[in-house]
Amino acid sequence: MSKDKILVIGANGQIGSVLTEALRGTFGTNNVVATDIREAAGHEGPFELLNVLDAKAVADAVERHGITQIYHLAAILSAKGEQNPLQTWDINMGGLFNVFEVARAKGIAKIFFPSSIAVFGADIPRQMTPQNAVLKPTTVYGMSKSAGELWSQYYFLKYGMDIRSLRYPGVIGWQSDPGGGTTDYAVEIYHNAVKEQDYTCFLSENTILPMIYMDDAIRATLELMDAEASKINVRTSYNLAGMSFSPSEIAATIQLEKPNFKVSYAPDFRQKIAKSWPESIDDSAARNDWHWKPKYDLSSMTKDMIFQLQKKYKLFGAL
Ligand code: AKB
After folding, report:
1. Which of 37, 153, 170, 319 has the most CB atoms within 10 Å of its CB?
2. In the chain, where are the structural domains located?
């Protein structure tokens, strides 16, 4: 029986919903308290509404459930964040400070804070962007993640808090829908292919971005959080890589399974965001420190995505 009690904030989001299930598999269903600002069906375990901007409510939840670890996943992502930059900053930073301050006051043992490839911007090598490349993000989301990374390190150095973080690439999964990101096309495209609908991509066909399959992203998170504290040499956030591809490459891979699938391109404001990010990531620090290794490439991910989505749509009578 696990003695850890986990609080997931943002448990209805794309990563949060899948991570909550995985944590329940590891720590036991009742030892993982899922929270979100919205109700959602389908939680098989404790769930409550929680607004991370309400510090007292976060403190109450921690106290009531005897929480020992917090996974703080609530944030506004890159594309949506540009529609209201100041509000995005307030939500992303305000939520983070509330979590860190409650964790400090309550002596929380471990905290997970997701960062992103959005921390990178101008003046980086775009191929195999190194761990310590300069951070000059151009979106407010990227700015909030880059500031959050420094605050994570600050709380570690000043208060000895065990805060761990990953710079997620675009995450692709069949279990949940993304929302408000620049990499969301790489999930939408599979849904259209399985529903036998053409897809219009909001990025241009040759825009290469780093991506990761959900299974790998979740495993990386669990492995990072499970590693011995002495192995964690990066206290800002670890670079994490899965694969890299462009819209035309993912389309061609899908067409191997679905030969009639057609994709057209109509780049919008998200193109500029994508062009400011790396094409591929050097994650050797994660590989060295806690033995990170992705399992999925574009081809194996595509086979699994199509298989799982077909099963899911059939189950709901939608195919
Ligand atoms: C986004 O596109 O904003 C996110 C991310 C890369 O952090 N998926």
Report:
1. 170
2. 6-170+213-239, 171-211+243-278+297-315
pLDDT tens track, the chain, 319 positions: 579 999 999 999 999 999 999 999 999 999 999 999 999 888 889 999 999 999 999 999 999 999 999 999 999 999 999 999 999 999 999 999 999 999 999 999 999 999 999 999 999 999 999 999 999 999 999 999 999 999 999 999 999 999 999 999 999 999 999 999 999 999 999 999 999 999 999 999 999 999 999 999 999 999 999 999 999 999 999 999 999 999 999 999 999 999 999 999 999 999 999 999 999 999 999 999 999 999 999 999 999 999 999 999 998 888 7
C-alpha neighbours within 13 Å on the C-beta side of residue 252: 7
Q: For residue 237, count other CB atoms closer than 10 A to its CB.
A: 25
Architecture of domain 6-170+213-239: 3-Layer(aba) Sandwich (3.40)
Whether the predicted model's global pTM rises above the 0.70 cut? yes
How far is residue 316 from each of residues 187, 197, 266, measured CA to CA in Å?
19, 18, 31
DSSP secondary structure letter of residue 42: T
CA of 317 to the centre of ligand 1 (A): 31
Task: Please tell me the residue having the least CA distance from ligand 1 atom 1.
Answer: 181
Ligand 1 atom closest to the Cα of residue 178 is 8
Please tell us whether the domain made up of 171-211+243-278+297-315 is placed in CATH 3.90.25. Answer: yes
- Most informative mutation of 18, 80, 92, 116 for ligand 1 (most atoms within 8 A of CB): 116
Which of 51, 45, 48 lies closest to 23, judged by CA? Answer: 45
Give every CB contact of residue 136 below 8 A, 6+ residues apart in sequence.
120, 121, 122, 123, 124
Closest residue to atom 7 of ligand 1, CA basis: 116
Which residues are near ligand 1 (CB < 6 Å)? 77-78, 116-118, 141, 168, 170, 181-183
The answer to whether 199 is a known catalytic residue is: no
